[in-house]
Design goal:
This protein has 392 residues and is of the alpha/beta class. It contains 8 helices and 21 strands. It folds into 2 domains: 171 residues, FAD/NAD(P)-binding domain; 152 residues, D-Amino Acid Oxidase, Chain A, domain 2 (2-Layer Sandwich), CATH 3.30.9.10. Strands 7-8-6-16-17-18-15-19 form an 8-stranded mixed beta sheet, with helices on both faces. Strand 16 and strand 17 form a beta hairpin.
């Protein structure tokens, strides 16, 4: 027997939860979210959770500002402990990126972001253990920080349920049901669901679900990694997040003396991966290289204690920017996919935009640069969606 709803959200990561909460809040009808495993089982639960507003693409910068503000106040709306740590962020680039850095800082300041260039001495005042090479530049964003992705997922889950979204776990969507070019439901492991609107927030599983439809969606399934270290007791405490483009990596503080580190962009995620069968452990040789790269920025970290790591999934587009749009040629299907490693940061704005698009047919934020058709009309070039060239 078919189950019925008005809007079906497929995917229980931060993007899907945000969309479900926004749709339910708009009283768009009965909203049901289906997750094949458990909430956050894909990339969301393993995200670095970095929140910063510095980006060269205006729409992404605007979405990042919305995301940072959302998480800063999320606990107030759901009555939960704070999920956001306002640590500040240090951004490091090569001297060759000076012009791009100056332009981006000017744009951020014009938008009201508290960001400024810093020299090596100022960096040591922020973080006494850090070192800046002669051919490197740095900037500091005071409002930036990070969230624990599991805490963020829990708060988004509570927020969606509070507004009336029905969240169902262990329900896998196998295919879309289509009649005369319009979606009428989906087939799942529990049987059919009937609906008039489907929102796909399916991350790495998107290409498989849309394989029967043409043209294929230009998203790739990638594997990334994260490493964990514990600082030596005499190495000082650090509470700042880094986007280190000169080293091609990010790192952030964890509870106690912990550090989480991983690659920026897709520099180390070149293999195409089956999202249902991939290595969830970090590669031993990669962990060794990560320690070496961290030690270039923080010489004292060569004495840090390795705590292993993990492999995770990302879904990326050719230009590194997400897709927020209708699915061309199939009425009633909306896409919120291809966020790479920035799903947590961009989820609040993405959920709002896709809810507006699915109910009003237009969005408050101009998401034209994120339309599906940009790859066919020449606007969607190759790139990594990053404001600077991350080192490999």
């Amino acid at each position: 027997m078919s189950q019925t709803c008005d809007i079906l959200v497929v995917g229980g990561g931060v993007i899907g939860l945000s969309a479900a909460g926004r749709l339910a809040r708009r009283r768009a009808g009965r909203v049901v979210l289906l997750e094949k495993a458990f909430l956050g089982a894909g990339g969301s639960g393993k995200s670095a959770g970095l929140l910063y507003q510095h980006d060269a693409v205006p729409v992404i910068a605007a979405m990042a500002r919305d995301g940072l503000r959302f998480y800063a106040h999320l606990h107030e709306s759901v009555g939960a402990p704070p999920v956001f740590t306002r640590s500040g962020l240090v951004l490091v680039v090569r001297e060759s990126d000076r012009a791009a850095l100056d332009a981006n800082l000017a744009a951020q300041r014009e938008a009201g972001v508290d960001v400024r260039p810093i020299n090596g001495q100022e960096l040591t005042e922020i973080d006494a253990n850090a070192r800046l090479a002669d051919d490197e530049l740095a900037a500091y964003e005071a409002e930036a920080g990070c969230v624990d992705p599991v805490q963020a997922l829990a708060a988004l889950t509570e927020n969606a349920r509070r507004h009336g979204a029905d969240l169902r776990q262990g329900v896998e969507v196998k295919s879309l049901d289509v009649e005369k070019g319009k979606v009428v439901g989906v087939q799942t492991n529990e049987g059919p669901y009937t609906c008039g609107v489907v929102v796909l927030a399916t991350g790495p599983w998107t290409p498989r679900l849309l394989k029967p439809f043409k043209p294929p969606l230009p998203t790739a399934v990638l594997r990334t990694q994260a490493a964990f270290f514990r600082r030596a007791t005499d190495s000082g405490r650090r509470s700042v997040v880094y986007a280190d483009f000169a080293q091609g990596l990010y790192f952030r503080p964890l509870t106690g003396d912990g550090i989480q580190a991983g690659p920026l962009g897709a520099a180390e995620t070149k293999d195409v991966i089956d999202p249902d069968d991939y290595n969830e452990s970090a590669d031993p040789d990669w962990l060794t290289r990560m320690r070496q790269r961290l030690s270039r920025r923080f010489p004292g970290l060569h004495r840090s204690f390795g705590r292993g790591g993990y492999g995770a999934l990302e879904a990326a587009t050719p230009d590194g920017l997400p897709i927020l749009d209708r699915l061309p040629g199939l009425e009633g299907v909306f896409l919120a996919v291809g966020f790479g490693g920035r799903s947590v940061l961009l989820a609040p704005a993405a959920g709002q935009a896709i809810a507006e698009l699915a109910t009003d047919g237009k969005t408050t934020l101009d998401v034209g640069p994120l339309r599906t058709g940009r790859f066919g009309d020449g606007d969607g070039g190759k790139g990594n969606g990053l404001p600077y060239a991350a080192a490999e």
